[in-house]
Amino acid sequence: MAILTEKVGMTNEDLKKIRSMRPGQQIDLQVTTASTTKRVRTEFVGIDGTRSLIIKYPDESKWGGLGEAIFKDKSLVMRYILEDETGVIIAFKVNVVLVLTKPSHLIFTSFPLAIQSHDLRSEGRAQTRIATKLTDSKIGEEICEAIVIDISVHGCRIQVDKKYLSNKLKLREVINLEFTNDADNKVQLVGIIMNFKYDEVNFYCGIKFETDEAIVDQLLKNLMLTTG
């Protein structure tokens, strides 16, 4: 997503999106030099009120020298995925205020004046707090209990407390999700882990359903997440 226009002014909802970033979160940084524009990955470190954002200096052993692209007063474009709740990508421009080399290599930037957002999903998802149990689809062994925080007929996002997850979930791993409705009937869906991230307390996994849409739709109706 390109930054096309700059509309100055942050709403309370915009501020909430900025403040949703957590230390350690992966961010995409678009930098420019006189000859090229490139995008690199780094980590968000922290925020100082509405004064500045702090990020790690990108690893130059991985992304190449960045001295001509990151320096005081240089403009940068930052992007990150607000995936846990809304499934949108957030983008905004900032200026470099300070590059610190000791005791850590950090970049301090200005606070954004405006943001842009783009929905990553082609469909809406119901926001919810449904309990589910994850099991290994191959051997049927229980992995952990989890909370579904959003769901549609094509997939869902789950939240797992770190202390209850002894084995890390893996990308492309096939798992079963077991649900129990009000009539105490159990329904099992099959899904593939497509992405994951974590904060200090929880793991969050994006799951694509492999189960027939009609079965998922009926489950959502039983859970009163859809009508009809």
Description:
This protein is mainly beta and 228 residues long. The protein has two domains: 12-119, Electron Transport, Fmn-binding Protein, Chain A (Pnp Oxidase, Chain A, Roll); 126-222, Thrombin, subunit H, CATH 2.40.10.220. The chain has helices at 12-19, 60-63, 213-222; strands spanning 26-32, 37-48, 52-56, 75-82, 88-100, 106-110, 116-119, 126-136, 142-151, 155-161, 174-180, 186-198, 202-209. It has a six-stranded antiparallel beta barrel. A six-stranded antiparallel β-barrel has the order 8-9-10-13-12-11.
Brief rundown of the structure:
The chain is mainly beta. The protein contains three helices and 13 strands, in the order αβββαββββββββββα. Strand 9 (142-151) and strand 10 (155-161) form a beta hairpin.
Main sheet overview: 6 strands, antiparallel, barrel
The overall average pLDDT, rounded, is 83
Please give the order of strands in the largest beta sheet.
1-2-3-6-5-4
Strand content: over 45%
Secondary structure elements and pairings:
Blueprint: H1 12-19, E1 26-32, E2 37-48, E3 52-56, H2 60-63, E4 75-82, E5 88-100, E6 106-110, E7 116-119, E8 126-136, E9 142-151, E10 155-161, E11 174-180, E12 186-198, E13 202-209, H3 213-222
Antiparallel strand pairs: 1-2, 1-4, 2-3, 3-6, 4-5, 5-6, 5-7, 8-9, 8-11, 9-10, 10-13, 11-12, 12-13
Identify the notable features of this structure and list them briefly:
disordered N terminus, mainly beta, six-stranded antiparallel barrel, single chain, Thrombin, subunit H, 228 residues, six-stranded antiparallel β-barrel, Pnp Oxidase, Chain A, 48% strand, 3 helices, 2 domains
